[in-house]
Design goal:
The complex is a heterodimer.
Chain A lengths: L1 H19 L12 H22 L1 H16 L1
Chain B lengths: L5 E2 L9 E6 L2 E7 L3 H9 L2 H7 L6 E4 L9 E7 L13 H20 L2 E3 L7 E4 L2 E4 L5 E3 L9 H17 L7 H4 L6 H7 L8 H16 L14 H16 L7 H5 L9 H18 L4 E4 L7 H5 L5 E5 L2 H13 L5 E5 L25 E6 L3 H7 L4 H11 E8 L5 H7 L11 H9 L2 E8 L6 E7 L6
The chains are: A mainly alpha, B alpha/beta.
Chain lengths: 72, 464
């Protein structure tokens, strides 16, 4: 019984993950496995600098406030 | 531009729909398989926004009974683009602007819950001086967490040829003519100079990308797929945009600067020639014009400034680049500069040599201007005058052509390094051959020069 419920749980989780992240989406062009894998790696790499770019104004304001408090 | 009736030869790869022509009108059939995506394109406001901003071709929905095959969901009538050009016919900045448009479209699509499912440079055309996407079916519902399926295609169609032009040689843009789905990244990587490995954007999106392609060449994408956050996807697009924006191409200084000084006639003769060409255009009242050997488009503008759609074709990518930048900066809407060699025009490529049409299949042109061109064809390229006349008579309905005699210093320059094997190259010989294919409407000597300007009508197209 315990084994059965465990198996059921795993199946439900697997199905949910398939719904959340479709493992294979229909595309009429070949995305290329190497290109697919590589973009995930490179995107993770460039995300940090992109975050700095997107939040640069907020970072500047934060740092600015930090220094203005110190001066007071 | 003549298009065959029925399904268009370049529109069969995407099962979402296809282009077809019925009673001379171009339609796009949307198949039921694309219904969910088409509805989202409209319901999300993406279509309205993109077409309103001139980034996507507009369309009208038509009677479904026009559908060409069963299983149609919609039939659309897209706005017409006067001339379909191909990426290997564009100059550097045209390709760069098309690349930036593609990335911009993808960013806007993501805001509306959609994504570009392809990034083919052939889906971009130039209308009113600006690039726009002509494939309405390029958008699909974007599932959260999925990487960009068109990343490989974008790098091959845009980034690789742009990098090759910027870092190696402008003539490498012709690689896009050989490789229908863009320049293979391993080839681009091997042609690019070693210094590009020290530029992060090219190291990553071309060199390492090519290595990854090789490593996973025989592995299925299903086993490798991992979720990718929306933020990471935006970071990737931002990185590609930076990579494209950092690429620049400028011909060497002296060459670049000399384009206005290549003529040998006086200012008076130049002004007179401009006046004559303007008069000829007025009398021919063309629907569209091709200026062959247009250089930077000085004479092309005599047509385009009269709101006549004009293509300015030149073999020199630097002259076309200068022409395009001028068009773009001054917002010219009727001039399309293109790179092309009329002695070796773009061939039909792709499936059955018909997927992308040859330059001549995309004709006939209403009026061709061939100014200071015939001596290049006849003397520099050994083309008999009869062949030149025959070609132009099939290529266009009207011809404005300039004849430059052997005594002119430009012709003397061409003859300086070779034997004169052209005994028939003289005014009488020129007129004799052209009169076989054309009627001469006007014949005027260009004052202060030895040149003659003609306005002719093709006998082949007469009455059509």
């Amino acid at each position: 019984m315990n084994l059965l419920s465990k198996t059921m749980k795993m199946l439900v989780l697997a199905a949910a993950s398939c719904l959340l992240f479709p493992r294979y989406a229909y595309c009429y062009i070949d995305p290329g496995t190497g290109s697919y894998v590589f973009q995930i790696v490179i995107a993770a790499f460039v995300a940090l600098s992109f975050a700095v770019k997107v939040y640069w104004q907020k970072i500047r304001q934060f740092v600015g406030r930090l220094f203005s408090k110190k001066e007071k | 531009m003549t298009l065959p009736e029925g399904q268009q030869p370049g529109s069969f790869r995407d099962p979402s729909g296809f282009l077809f022509r019925h009673d001379g009108v171009l339609y796009r059939q949307v198949n039921a398989a694309y219904q969910e995506h088409y509805d989202l394109l409209l319901a999300s406001g993406l279509y309205r926004r993109l077409s309103g901003e001139g980034l996507l071709v507009g369309h009208e929905e038509c009677d479904l009974r026009l559908a060409r095959t069963p299983g149609a969901y919609k039939v659309l009538r897209p706005d017409l683009v006067p001339f379909i050009s191909y990426p290997h016919e564009w100059c550097f900045s045209q390709l760069k602007d098309a690349a930036l448009l593609t990335l911009n479209l993808q960013k806007i699509a993501l805001e509306h819950g959609m994504s570009l499912k392809d990034a083919s440079a052939y889906n971009v055309q130039f209308l009113h001086g600006r690039p726009l996407l002509i494939d309405t079916l390029s958008f699909e519902k974007s599932p959260e967490g999925r990487p960009w399926v068109a990343y490989r295609q974008f790098c091959q169609h845009f980034l690789a040829p742009l990098a090759l032009i910027a870092h190696r040689d402008v003539r490498l843009n012709l690689l896009s003519r050989l490789h229908l789905d863009g320049v293979p990244l391993d080839l681009a990587g091997s042609l690019l100079p070693a210094r590009t490995r020290f530029k992060f954007s090219l190291l990553s999106h071309i060199h390492l990308h090519a290595r990854s392609q090789k490593r996973y060449a025989d592995k299925p994408v299903r086993s490798q797929q991992r979720p990718m956050s929306r933020f990471a996807l935006l970071a990737l697009l931002n990185s590609l945009e930076t990579a494209v924006k950092k690429l620049h191409w400028r011909p060497s200084g002296s060459e670049w600067a000399e384009y206005y000084g290549h003529t040998n006639y006086s200012d008076q003769a130049g002004e007179f020639k401009e006046k004559l060409v303007g008069e000829f255009l007025l009398s021919l009242s063309p629907l569209h014009v091709w200026d062959i050997g247009a250089n930077t488009g000085v004479f092309s503008r005599l047509a385009s400034q009269r709101n006549i759609p004009t293509v300015a074709l030149d073999i020199d990518a630097a002259a076309v680049e200068k022409n395009y930048l001028q068009c773009r900066d001054s917002g010219e809407k009727f001039l399309l500069p293109l790179v092309g060699d009329i002695t070796n025009p773009s061939p039909g490529i792709g499936w059955e040599n018909e997927e992308r049409q040859s330059l001549l299949q995309r004709c006939p042109v209403d009026t061709v201007m061939a100014l200071a061109l015939v001596h290049h064809l006849a003397i520099a390229n050994n083309l008999p005058l009869a062949k030149i006349a025959d070609f132009f008579s099939r290529f266009c309905r009207n011809l404005i052509v300039e004849f430059i005699p052997k005594s002119d210093s430009q012709v003397q320059l061409l003859l300086a390094t070779r034997d004169d094997i052209f005994p028939d190259y003289h005014v009488a010989g020129f007129e004799k051959e052209f009169l076989r294919f054309f009627t001469i409407e006007r014949r005027e000597a260009i004052a202060h020069s030895e040149r003659i300007l003609y306005a002719m009508r093709s006998k082949i197209h007469a009455g059509k």
